[in-house]
UniProtKB/TrEMBL annotation:
<keyword id="KW-0808">Transferase</keyword>
<dbReference type="InterPro" id="IPR001451">
    <property type="entry name" value="Hexapep"/>
</dbReference>
<dbReference type="InterPro" id="IPR050484">
    <property type="entry name" value="Transf_Hexapept/Carb_Anhydrase"/>
</dbReference>
<dbReference type="InterPro" id="IPR011004">
    <property type="entry name" value="Trimer_LpxA-like_sf"/>
</dbReference>
<protein>
    <submittedName>
        <fullName>Carbonic anhydrase/acetyltransferase-like protein (Isoleucine patch superfamily)</fullName>
    </submittedName>
</protein>
<dbReference type="Pfam" id="PF00132">
    <property type="entry name" value="Hexapep"/>
</dbReference>
<dbReference type="GO" id="GO:0016740">
    <property type="term" value="F:transferase activity"/>
</dbReference>
Amino acid sequence: MQFEHLGVSPRIHPEAVIAPTAVISGDVVIGPGCQVLHGAVITAEGGPIVLGENVVVMENALIRGSAVHPVHVGSHVLVGPMASVSGATIADEVFLATGTRIFNGARIGAHSEVRINAVVHLRTVLPERSVVPIGWVAVGDPAEILSPDRHERIWELQQELDFPGYVFGLDRDTPDLMVQLTERYTASLARHMHDRRLD
């Protein structure tokens, strides 16, 4: 399914193959040889998404760009089933395994691997040929790659990255943080009310 969002329609190379149950919405460019499988969602929420050549987006993966955090995925990248990429830059020949989470402002260097259920956090930079092991967390610039049992260190680095400020423009100490965050986000997402299905 393809949708025009904010007046912009997806541009899909004729050699790309999009499953009939995939959703492609808004300012999305999909290059030649790409495969987008069943249940995948590629949604440009006001900012562009570009997939290079021969990118595979597997079942139920999510790629989301925003006006502040566009997405660029290089060529020969595999985005595994149930993986999530939000507002990040992925270089060429990167493997994002099943269930990986890549957050806003992250940059992943060429030939890197983010293995099953691993996380590359907000504004984190992975150099070329990095490996984030199964279930581990990469945080910071330069990235520290930490096992999930290192929660205190992960949180220490995470606080400095300021998720609510960076993504939503809100101070973490705002007394009604979740009220303001959800009201801003629902107002932004309400722009989909005027989307137009193209196929």
